[in-house]
Structure formats: structure tokens, C-alpha cells
């Protein structure tokens, strides 16, 4: 990646500079990419100034004293309502009448720009459509029209010169505010009723319900509402100052809209509910919008109820109980009460956790209630204060003693212990700066790692006990003994204590820190006058402390992110551009402005947006903590997604303990983590957290690594290796520092996870070895015989079930083979005497005789040395249902060892393969009595073993006789003797019948020839094609594909044979039939041998098959590769990503793609950045902006 990759290409630059003025002005398109008549611009300018002119009418009438302020505002609003109704009616009429014409005109000039419009005159339909596009929904037509009239009326009242003059104390300051404020009001009216501009603050990828048009009117109405409160209530200096400031901000609203600082209505609503829920009501950010809405309403209802409870004891019991219940995972209620099953029994408490929850609830309420009843000491003033016997004119002093003081000291000890135990759980200490000498490094296997972590696990268990059991009860005791409980009649204290009792459970560690801060402040203020801070009450103090800690932590994180972007823009050579020096100098000069942006961004909890990820910072618009509007779980799936699907549940189970013991740090909601194993990169987002549970989203990034992906993945590996490498000089102080402290990734821990390890081997020397390839045919016949025997045994075991329920056999995958099997079973008892009539009728039938199916009249017709895959017969064989000549169970393929006499059968015509064939040399037919055993029909009990249609292969007798030595009789008898799956009937039948070997051998050789393996030394390319199911065409192959079950068995046998070849070449030959039998049994039960694109491969991964094997071909290197997946427990490295860095890059991604439409795959902001991990961060964004190949639904983990 070169440093001078363009930020925007030429086309996008032109597009951006046409769009940005439209955003700044509120909708007028004054810059087009083509020549337009002057009346187009004149119409837009006139409509833009219409609200100002209509408002001016009311303003003038008010100033001359003809109308009061209310009547003047009503007049202006009525006029604007009429104009808006006329515009929308005109737009709807034009859209209905000329919709067809519009489509035809767009088709006429296919070379024209899609945005170009041909204007005919000033009131033409295309002119109206261009200036006033209209609304999609009739509801919006009515709503926006009414809102436009109300907005103009209220805006006229808001900007009356007399009111502004009274507010600022003179017309000198009022007139500039009056003039510029009407520009803001006109832009809001134009966006609402004429043409909605593209907004830089875009939250939804598509504005389906036309919410964007409400953005500017919403903020205008908010400003007007504040001024309305000031005018209609008693004058207050604070409110007057707020109105003065807001009037100035009102002037610069178009600039804030253009910069994207103010959120759209949907993002504003979600952000406001989340901030109130977290900071004001003690809740947690929620995983979905629906959960956020429900939890917000319930929590607000609890706070309101607390205000109306008269008894302090009732307040304690109610808030403790509701705080505990609301901090639980509501999604598991269905699993607890049996309405639905939990996603995984390993990830949730379910019904087994219900008694534990009830015990905790009862214990907490008893703890708070008893302490408050027996040890509570009410005071005569707010706060935990005492008059200390002072005279009335002396202010009360702060005193901190008694039972609450003892609990306060206990809280300090609990905080120190819990934080200490949490710090030693991770790889680094003190925010990732120093190495943890207690953490094990360079562990080769998970078992050794587990043994090395015994002491850390013990510390983790102690932390869990202190934080989850001891701390909540201690904090409840501290709150229950607080003297400010008597003043809950004030709304602030009611909300404060409701939040405090909720935080005890919802976020125990944060609540503990906040209470310790309050305790330390009280200890440092003993004896001081109880004014200001000390008069607020404990509930409000905790709320303020929580807000300050949250915003301070955000500021520090944003500052680190900004410094990382600034420093790496120069230190990273590939990130250094020609303009970098100028940007660094500008940041140095405007350092106070940059700090102000950081402070504003932290106060609003908004992302710090680095424009194009350059050191040019903007304040992004506030949005929910998870950054995206939809529910997590959307991805761009591909065949590799199945590996992440298997991994997600296992990884989530391993993360439960890591989160509970503190190995991942504090891990508040909104945290992001990266997990690395081999070529897999998992992105974890903590969505929600409560007492004993957390909610995660796991994303899987692409495995087909691009150059940018590879560069950042390599840096990830370097960071993890440096963190977990053994220290060679433990006494050297530099070895204790984190060498990658400035990186956005901070290693946390290593987790043992059961997953698939991927091993790839180059098969040069194996697949091209003549020594190994010569064994392939013999191994193939052995394996296929074994699979056929297993199939017979399985079929015999399932026969009673088939007779009772008549379902399709799981082994038989085609209806034709099942029908053949049933036909053989039903007709196997027919007498041989009845065979003659069947053969006679079939031989005389010209429509169905197999003699018509391309049979050859001479054995010379079968001999073709130039054809590797056998004879090329011109006509295809008839369908199985057309063969009415054969007996059920008869063998129509060659029988190599049969000595049965055929004197009982009538003379047969040449029926093709496996029957008497004409000899060109003699010109006659062979005598039936002189036929070899391989050419005689078989019947008897063994005909039930295989379907009759499997014995009708179009194969040449000489070719079959040539391949006869490949049939291993010893291996066959050994395999028959080792059958244990099937019933006794099949085993006895296989052992007693002498013709069984010929029967199975015929089918095996038929499959061998059909696949083109009759050559002694197949080529590597042929082996690769056959492994993938791409055998060379022949009529035998068509015959084989017509028998779906047999074709699958043949393909499976070949894959087993190749795996056998691979294992023998790697581990040595198999010396005995017992070893071969054990190997095939292992293949059958513990392996999936196929290709990575098979559906069975993905199902095997989901079902966690222990081993998988596939054969591949590297086109770039020209080599064949073997891939082995092994399910085993391995160490997965987990690191925390800077949350503010992720939010800032995602905010830039949203701006760049949704507003600037910069979707260039080679754009600067997607190139590799080894410190910011920019490419991986872009991939992990939710679609359509990001492209993770896997994204789990929100996973609820029980981590108590």
C-alpha cells in the first residue's frame, strides 16, 4: 500500500463537492454536474426563502403593532401550511400522471448520466419532480405538511426582534442573530417539505420511512421548546443564560449538521435511552433495540415507584429486590419457566439456577431490611451528617462513624483485593504497560498451560467470591445504613438510590469503585462544613461520581486513540503522506481546539471521528454503544463460515470463566476483543452485562487473506508472541515493559478451546510416486468390498424397521436402489422353473431387450487398446424400470468363479454384457456349457445381498477377466468374519454361499472400470479428478451414476483408498488385515474424507467429527496438497482492542460509505495499518459496511 493512495477518486470527489453544498444549505441543489436552465436555480432559491418571507409578514405586523406575538406566529404558520400543502399536492399529482413517461425517457438515452435531467420549461413535470420529489407515503405527506406550518409559526415567534432584543439587552446583538437564525429555519423547512438533503450524520443505511427529513425540524423545535419554557415560567438567571447560548448555537446549526455532529432522530432516541438507563437508572447497554426499550420503560417505572413509597424500609426492600431482578438476564426467563429452550445448556443457568437466584434475592432483601431496621440512625438534614452539637448559626460538619463507617472500610479492602486479583489474571499489569511475572508463557499444549495456571485460577475464584458474593451484600449494607434515605421525597435522591441499589448487582465492580470514592471523600472531609457536595445525599453523590468516572475514562481512551493516529501517521512509513507534515503542524497549532473536541466527544459519549483515518478529527454524532442500528448476527456467509460456527459455542464457553475471573480486565459493555488461532481471527463484542451474565457477539473474519489482512494478522501474531514469549533476562527492566504498548491491541490471556487445527501438507513424492500409485487399484477393491459388506450388514440390521415403518434406509440415498432392494426381497423365493418364461418374453421383446442397448456381436468389439476407459457404446442403456427380462437377484455382470451349469435355462440371445457374445473370428456364438463362470447368471439367497440393478454394468468380458486377480479372496473372507454390525442372517449367508465373492467382486470391478481405474498406474491428475467426483466420461460411468447409492459408495471407497495411500506413505504400510480393518473402522467412525466444498464436510464440522481430510490442488505452485482438520484442545490468544479506536474508525466508515459513497476497494481508509488494525476493524463492522463471514446471534453467557 503506497502512502499516496487517493482518499477519494476523481469521480467521487466531483460527487462529494456536489453533495456537500446541498447538505450545508438543507436541500437546494445549486451545483449540478451538467448545464441546467436558470429557472431551476431560481425556483430552488425562491422556495428556500419562502419561510423567511412568510415569517417576515407576521414579524412586520407584530412590529407595527397590528398583531400580537401569538397571532403573528399563527398567521405565518398558516401561510406556510398552505404553501406546503400546495407543493405536496403538486408533487403527488405529477408523480401519478407522469410516472410512465419518466421511465420511458430514462430508457431513451442510455449513455446519459443517471442524474441528468432534460428540462423543457419551468413548470414541466420533470422540473417539478427535480425540485420537489415528493414523499413516498401519504402519512408523511400529511405529517410533514402540518409540521412545516407549525415550524414556521413557532420559528416566527422564536425570532421576534423584540424578544431577542430583550434577551440580549439591545438590538446590536439581536439583529445578527435574527438574520442568521432565519437561514437555519429556512434550511429546516426546505429539508422537511421540498427536498431532503443527504445528511452526513447517517445511522441507517436506507431511509425507508423518511426519518431523515425530520432531523433538522426536530432540533429547531428543541431549541424553541427551551425558549418557550423560559418565557412561560418565572425568570431564572440560569435559564436566561441557557437561552442566550442556545440562540447563538441556533445560528451555527447548519454547520453542525454539515459536520455530522448532531444525530438523526432514531440514533438520538436510542442514545438518549441508553445514557439515561446506564447513568441515571443504573442499567447496562442492551444487546438489541427492543431489549433497550423494554428495560428503559421498566427501570423508569421502578424509579417513579420509589418516589411514592413513604417508608424508608419499604424503599430499601423494593429497590434491593427490583435491582436484583432487573440485573438478571431477561432472555433466560423463558428457559427457566419452560416456555422455550435455552440456546445452550452450557451458556445459561436455566432452571438449575432458579433456586440460587431465589436464595440470593432473599438474602439480599433480608440483609438490607434487617440492617436498616436495627442499625439505621436517621438524621435531621440531608446526607450522612450530624449537627455535632453546634449552635444554630454554625453550619453542620461532616461526621463519618458508626456501623456505616465500618462497612465503608470494608468496601475499601474489598476494592483493593478484587482489583489486585483481577490484575494478576492477565498477561500485563497496569493497563497493559508491565508484564505479569505470574502469567505462564510458552506453553506448548493446553494441559501444561492448565497446570501452570492453578494459582491464577485460585486467585480468580477468590475474586469471584469477593466480587459476586461479599461485595453486593456489603454495598447493600452501606446504602441501607445511609442517613439520606429519609429524604427520598426529593426526586433526585429517589433516582439516586434506585440507581445505587441497581448498580450493586448490575455492575458490582463499578459500584464498588464509586462507593469507595464517596467514602474516601467523606473521610477526607471529616469536620468540614456540610455544604455543597455533602448536602447532595449519597444517592446523588454516587450518580455524579459514576458520571465523572465514565466520562474521564472515555476522555483518556479517546486521547490515547488520537495520539496513536497522530504519531503513527509519521512513524509508520507507509502511512506517511505528503500532507502529513502540514496536518501535524495544524494539530500542534490547534491543540486547544483538539482538546476541546476530545472533551466534547467524551461529554456526549460520541465517537471521535478521524476523517479518512487521518489526523483530522471531528466529533461524530452520538449513537448507541454498539455503533450499528440492527440486531447483531448479520454476516456475509461463505463455506469457511462453518469453522467459526463450530468455534463460537466452544469459545463462548471458555470465555465464561475468563470474564468471571477478570482475565479480560473490567470488560464493560462496549468492549472489543480479538481472538487469534492459526488463520482464524474472531472479533468479540461485549454487548450487555449484568449480575452473573454477559451477552456477546462473535464475528469471524475472512480466511482467504488479502495482502492487507495478512499484514495486520502478522502484526497480531507478533504482539501475542512478544507478550507470551519467555523472558530471557528476567532481571532486566526493559523485559518487563510491553513492547507494543501503543498498539490498539493489548494481549489479555490465552484460553484452552476445543477447535479444529488445520494442517496442510504438500503431497509431492506421494501422489506422483509410482510405487504408491500401483497399490491404489488393489486398495480400492479392498475398500469397496469392505463398504459393500458394511452396507449389507447395515441393511440386514434395518430390515425389521423397514418392514414396520417403511422409511427410506439411511444408507440408500436413491429411490431406485430402494425399489430394487424391495423387489429382490419379494421375488427371491421364485422357483428356477419360472425363469424360462421371463427370459423368453424378454428376449422376444424388441422394445425392452437389452440386446438393443448397444451390445456387440463379437469379443473383438470390446478390445480397444486406444481407449483407456473401455468401449464407447453408442447408445445409452435403458432405464431400470424398462428391464422386464431379468429375474430378481440375477447376476448380469461377469461372474469370475461360478461353476453352475446353465442347462436348466433356455438358449439366450446376446443380451450385451456378461452373456454369450459373438466371435468375429468364427462368426458364431459360444456354447453356453463352455462359458466361464463369470458369464453365468446367479440366483439364490445371496441375491438379496445387493440390488439386482448393480449387476448390469456394460463391461467387456476380456477386460473383466484381465482384472480378475485384483479381487482379494483372503481379505474378503477376513472382512466377512469380522462383521459385527449386521444381523446373524447376513453373516451366515455371506459365510455359507460360495458365489458371494464372485457377486461382490463383479460389483467392485464394475465400479473400478466405471471410474477409469483399470490402468495399473493412474496419473496424479486422474487421482485428483476422481477424488473430487470428476471421473472421465464413459458409458460405464453413466451406468454408475444412474445407481446413486452405488456411485456414492464407489466415490467413498476411492477417497478412503487415497487416504489409505496417504497414511501408508506417511506412517508405513499396513502389515496385516487386522490393521487394515482397524484403519477402515476409524475412517468410518472418526473421519470425514471428502472435499472442503461438500455439504457433508460442513455438517461434519458442525457435528464436530474428530478428523477431516481433503485433497486439494495449488494452482499457483502446481502442487497437490492434503488438508487434515483435527478436533483438539488448543490455546486461543485473546487481546483487547481499544474501544474508542474501534468506534472512531466505524464512525468514519459510516460517514465515508453512507455519505461520501467511497466504496473503492483500494481506498486509503481500508488499507493495512499495523498499529490501528484498520483493515480488520473495517471487516468487523456490521454489513452492509463490513463483511464478516460469520456473526453469531447475541450469546448469553452465565458467568457467575
UniProtKB/TrEMBL annotation:
Instruction: Tell me the segments the record calls region Disordered.
Output: 804-862
Q: Does the keyword Transmembrane helix apply?
A: yes
InterPro entries attached here? Pecanex, Pecanex_C
What's its membrane topology?
A: Multi-pass membrane protein
| Chain segments annotated as transmembrane | 39-64, 70-95, 137-160, 166-192, 239-260, 267-287, 293-326, 347-366, 461-481, 530-549, 584-609
| Main subcellular location | membrane
Compositionally biased residues, Low complexity: 833-861
- The keyword Transferase appears for this protein: no
Alphabetic keyword roster: Membrane, Transmembrane, Transmembrane helix
Bias type Polar residues, positions: 811-831
Family in the record: Belongs to the pecanex family.
The protein in question is named: Pecanex-like protein
